[in-house]
Structure formats: C-alpha cells, structure tokens
Design a protein that fits this description.
Layout: H1 2-5, H2 8-18, H3 20-27, H4 34-58, H5 64-87, H6 93-117, H7 125-143, H8 149-178
Helix pairs in contact: 2-4, 2-5, 3-4, 3-5, 4-5, 4-7, 5-6, 5-7, 6-8, 7-8
C-alpha cells in the first residue's frame, strides 16, 4: 500500500498545496516582477492539476487514494489561494465564500457517501473546468490591470456558473443516483 501512496501523480497533487507558501510570499511582498512570479505559481499549480490525472492514467497509477488526494488538493489550493487574494484585497469576500462553501459541501458529501456506501467519489469535468476558471480569476486578479477588469468580472461569473453546474451534477450523481440505489446519469 505504501508504494501506491508515493506515486508521481500523488506527489504532483501534494505539490499543488505546497505552492500556497510561495504564492503567499509573493502576494505579501514587494519583490521585483511580483505579478510574473504570481502568474508562474498559478500556472505551475494548474499544470500539476493537469499532469497528476494524466500521469495517473498513463502510468496506471489510478488509486482510490489518488481519487481523494487530487480533488482535495484542488479544494485546499483554490480555497487557500482565494483566502490570500481576499487578504490582499484582490478578490471580493463573497467570491471566497462561494468557493469555500461549495468545496465544503462537496467534501462533507464525499465523506458521507464514503461512510454510507463505501464509495470513493471522483471529481467531474465541470468541477475541473470550474477549478480552471478559478485559476484564471486568480491570474487576472493578480494582474491588477484596469484594461482586463471587464474580462476578469466575466470570468468571475463564469467560474461561479461552473461551480454551480459541477455542484448540481455532483449532487445528482451521488445523492440522487447512489443513495437511492438508482443508476445515475453523468
């Protein structure tokens, strides 16, 4: 079992969470090229999110633990980054509340399903797309460009829409389908 924990895929998922430390440093400091460093960290986190799943499938390292670590790393990283961005005044508090509330509800639901049905839940594609748009929101917010503000606002609302869609699919798939014993759609 131990060798199945320390897979390349799981290490990439863990690394995503650890990227919050350099992100915090960059956001709270006056280092030269602050925006470029912030962008590089966000892009690197996004790449780890893509490659952890890709490599898990390619290297036949898909495990129940990996199915938990990947979305958990997404949730921790998204919430942690949103907290940092709110703390430095780059994101509104309501956005942080939406991100954290959705992720907490999904986490609680996943634990409930694991206890009730012994099923490890997986993320869905709209959830992955929502995480992508959250990253874009962070990237655009960190740029602090008045010229990009309209696009940033559009992306904020698009990410909220994708979070709502992924949450609705999650609820339908898990609670309606699995708890009722019916086969779920999607």
């Amino acid at each position: 079992m131990l060798q199945r924990v320390w897979t390349i895929s799981n290490l990439l998922s863990f690394s995503r969470v650890f990227l919050l430390a350099p992100l915090a440093y960059v956001l709270f400091s006056d280092i030269p090229n602050r925006q470029a460093w912030m962008a590089a960290i966000i892009v690197l986190a996004g790449l780890t999110d893509f490659f952890d799943g890709f490599l898990a499938r390619k290297l036949h390292q898909v495990t129940d633990l990996g199915k938990v670590i990947d979305p958990l790393a997404d949730k921790i990283t998204a919430a942690g980054a949103a907290i940092l961005f709110v703390a430095v005044g780059l994101l509104p508090l309501w956005y942080l509340i939406v991100v954290v509330a959705r992720d907490l509800l999904i986490l609680i639901g996943g634990v409930y399903i694991k206890i009730k049905k012994n099923i490890v839940t997986q993320s869905n594609w709209p959830g992955k797309i929502a995480v992508f748009f959250i990253a874009v929101v962070l990237l655009l917010s960190g740029m602090e460009s008045p010229r990009l503000e309209g696009f940033r606002q559009f992306t904020i609302w698009l990410s909220v829409l994708m979070m709502a869609v992924s949450f609705a699919i999650y609820v339908q798939r898990l609670f309606v389908g699995r708890l009722s014993g019916k086969r779920s759609v999607g």
